[in-house]
Design a protein that fits this description.
With about 500 residues, the chain is an alpha+beta fold. The chain has three domains: about 1-205, no CATH class; about 230-300, Cytochrome Bc1 Complex, Chain D, domain 2 (Orthogonal Bundle), CATH 1.10.760; about 320-490, no CATH class. The chain is built from ten helices and 23 strands. A four-stranded antiparallel sheet has the order 5-6-9-10, with no helix packed on it. A four-stranded antiparallel sheet has the order 11-12-13-14, with no helix packed on it. A hairpin with a 6-residue loop joins strand 2 and strand 3. The chain is elongated, with a radius of gyration of 27 Å. Bound molecules: heme C (3 copies).
């Protein structure tokens, strides 16, 4: 028999003599995988299936073991133009779920599935069986997984401190058997813990203390090296493309503030999955500085004529009456402003999106406004934002008439003067009051909206973010906000004088 697997997520058995197909068995989630693609995004499982490492065979029982990625993607084909003929289209992951993995044991002769293990991280590393009946596998979160090969019972799980993306071998010296694994580095299938690169050797019995050999990072003369370009290309460019414009994963061009090494450090240390954990670990402070530098000069081209403005976002400023200043403090807090964002007409493709978190960074996953303020075809708001806050993913949600109504405020209701910078009070106030520039609201209508709109009310019950922390709330309570807004109207809704 000959057994083959691959990105289709299936395992095929062939008769080696006649080449006749014998079996064709799914080993990860499959959906729409047999349908033709067209020019619109189509959701297909598997997204990736089996990667480049080997499967394992157990001659004792005649079984084969296959590790898979279990994560769906969107695909579309494109007319061939010369630029995209290699892949013939585009693909983007399905960020509604995090990547998982699956290990399947099959009878090598019939293809019958013997057992399956669903893992909360992709299984990319090679698998290996032992004569004593064990199966070893590893995942991108850096866990060595040990099973009873026959029953599939998980026996042990060990943290190795870095993604397992590569080979796993077993060998013996004298009477002791060892297991060696390549650990660390980032994998193109994400959600891993990158960790420093090393080979970890473990002893199978407790009789001799296993020796663990950690290779130091390649030094400055090595190829991983001090050259910022090489570092960017091997670590970031792999996933985000050599110019940062996106490849397997989205463009990073919306994040020019990351040219600041402090902000890059903070971002890499706190960015949620599926972006892998690269720092601290694979990268050290020095690397982060080199990458930030390369981002500044070559990716964002900060301040150059064809480059981006990499300045940090502006702060809210206003004058005006006591009531107005309170109102302004709510309107410009991140919970409101993240949805009332401005478009930069000179860069509408990279500059029109919601923002996230108190840092007001560009919404991750490459989410954009779309024609109806509800997102592009492959990132509609309601695919992730449901009818209520989702404490698992951290995606907020609100409902009206049984439907999620979590959408961007239309561009004409933007409260930023330019992307990222809140409108100063003397500009925001008259805009808010004027039905021609506020979407047709009267002052009374605005008051009602502030009181009863579900999105406004959400700002005071914003739930947990994607890292499991409570979001902050506007500086005054909702009750107080509505009372102050009413009082401001009664006093003739005065605006602050023009600021300079
Ligand atoms: C989930 C995104 C979202 C959030 C969060 C959000 N808004 Fe809005 N907002 C919208 C949308 C969408 C509209 C357009 C509603 C319509 O046309 O009926 C809107 C319209 C408005 C309007 C009327 C138009 C205008 O610009 O004057 C006001 C006032 C408003 N929002 C206030 C707030 C306040 C105050 C907060 C925070 C406490 C807030 N919003 C938070 C999405 C949001
Ligand atoms: C293994 C692949 C991988 C590597 C390596 C990687 N990233 Fe990412 N990155 C992702 C994924 C997946 C996301 C998640 C999608 C998202 O959040 O937008 C992401 C998100 C991002 C975003 C937010 C993009 C957006 O949607 O607006 C930025 C910025 C970013 N990465 C920067 C970097 C930098 C800088 C490096 C190198 C230090 C790097 N990434 C290395 C996979 C990777
Ligand atoms: C792929 C899933 C996904 C899609 C699609 C998506 N979002 Fe989100 N969104 C999230 C997650 C997850 C968070 C939580 C991030 C956090 O707070 O750490 C979030 C957070 C936000 C926030 C930030 C809330 C705050 O104040 O911090 C806003 C605003 C938002 N999304 C708007 C939108 C809009 C508008 C759309 C459609 C144009 C959209 N999102 C599409 C997943 C998604």
């Amino acid at each position: 028999m000959l057994a083959v697997t691959g990105k289709s997520g299936r395992v095929y058995g062939y008769d080696r003599t006649t080449q006749a197909p014998v079996f064709d068995v799914p080993a990860t989630t499959l959906a729409h995988d047999q349908e033709p693609l067209d020019f619109y995004w189509k959701w297909v499982c598997p997204g990736t299936g089996a990667q480049y490492n080997g499967t394992a065979y157990d001659p004792r029982t005649g079984s084969i073991f296959v590790g898979m990625v279990d994560w769906c993607r969107y695909f579309k084909s494109a007319p061939l133009t010369g630029d995209n003929d290699y892949s013939g289209g585009s693909t983007t992951p399905d960020y509604r779920s995090l990547p998982e993995g699956r290990i399947t044991a099959l009878n090598a002769t019939s293809g019958q599935t013997l057992w399956r293990f669903q893992n909360d991280a992709p299984v990319i590393a090679g698998l290996i069986t032992t004569k004593s009946g064990l199966l070893f596998a590893g995942d991108v979160k850096g866990r060595l997984l040990v099973f009873d090969a026959t029953s599939g019972a998980p026996l042990q799980r060990q943290e190795l401190g870095g993604a397992m993306n590569n080979g796993l071998i077993s060998y013996s010296v004298g009477d002791e058997q060892y297991l060696a694994a390549a650990v660390g580095g980032s994998s193109i299938i994400t959600d891993g813990v990158a960790g420093p690169l090393r080979v970890t050797v473990l002893g199978l019995t407790q009789s001799k203390k296993p020796e663990t050999t950690t290779f130091p990072r390649l030094n400055d003369e090595g190829n991983f090296a001090s050259a910022p370009k090489a570092l960017f290309l091997t670590v970031c460019g792999n996933c985000h493309g050599p110019s940062g414009t996106g490849q397997l994963y989205p463009s990073i061009l919306r994040h020019p503030h990351l040219a600041d090494p402090k902000l890059l450090e903070k971002f890499l240390a706190s960015v949620p999955a599926p972006m892998p954990k690269l720092y601290p670990g694979l990268l050290n402070k020095h690397d982060v500085r080199l990458i930030a530098n390369y981002l500044r000069t070559d990716i964002f081209k900060c301040g150059q004529s064809d480059g981006q403005n990499c300045k940090s976002y502006g702060r809210p400023v206003t004058g005006g009456t006591e009531e107005w200043r309170r109102i302004y403090s709510v309107l410009t807090n991140p919970r409101c402003l993240n949805c009332h964002t401005a478009t930069d007409p000179t860069h509408p493709d990279t500059n029109d999106y919601p923002r996230q978190t108190d840092d007001r960074r560009a919404h991750l996953f490459g989410i954009s406004r779309g024609e109806d303020n509800k997102g592009l075809l492959n990132g509609r708001c309601d695919t992730c934002h449901g009818k209520s806050n989702n404490p698992q993913t951290g995606a907020p949600g609100v409902e009206e008439d049984g439907q999620s109504v979590w959408f961007l405020a239309p561009s004409n209701m933007a409260w930023e003067i330019s992307p990222g910078t809140p409108m100063p009070g003397d500009i925001l106030c008259p805009k808010l009051k004027n039905p021609e520039t506020n979407g047709g609201f009267t002052l009374k209508g605005l008051l009602k909206h502030m009181d009863t709109d579900v999105r406004v009310n959400w700002a005071w019950a914003p739930g947990l973010n994607s890292r499991g922390f409570e979001r902050t709330q506007p500086p005054i309570s909702h009750d107080k906000f509505v009372r102050v807004f009413g009082r401001w109207i009664e006093k003739g809704a005065p605006c602050p004088k023009v600021l300079d």
